[in-house]
């Protein structure tokens, strides 16, 4: 998915309360990477595997 595509839908996803689950070591250290303040949940690879095993729909970037 292109970054511009993500930008188009991010406000709607935030309004719906959709949290981005991001592998913890992939989170940038600089605070300006999430200027819109979208909710983010840092997760481990094991957390991702558990989430995938119980979810019925995915949006993966």
Q: How would the blueprint of this fold be written?
A:
Elements: H1 3-15, E1 20-23, E2 40-43, H2 45-54
Parallel strand pairs: 1-2
For the termini, the CA-CA separation is: 6 Å
Widest sheet: strand ordering: 1-2
Question: How do the helices and strands follow one another from N- to C-terminus?
Answer: HEEH
- Whole-angstrom Rg: 12 Å
Overall mean pLDDT score? Answer: 86
| Total number of distinct structural domains | 1
Instruction: Work out the number of β strands.
Output: 2
Strand content: 5-15%
The parts where pLDDT drops under 50 for at least 5 residues are: none
- What is the makeup of the main sheet? 2 strands, parallel
Structural category = alpha+beta
Key terms:
alpha+beta, 2 strands, globular, two-stranded parallel ribbon, 38% helix, 61 residues
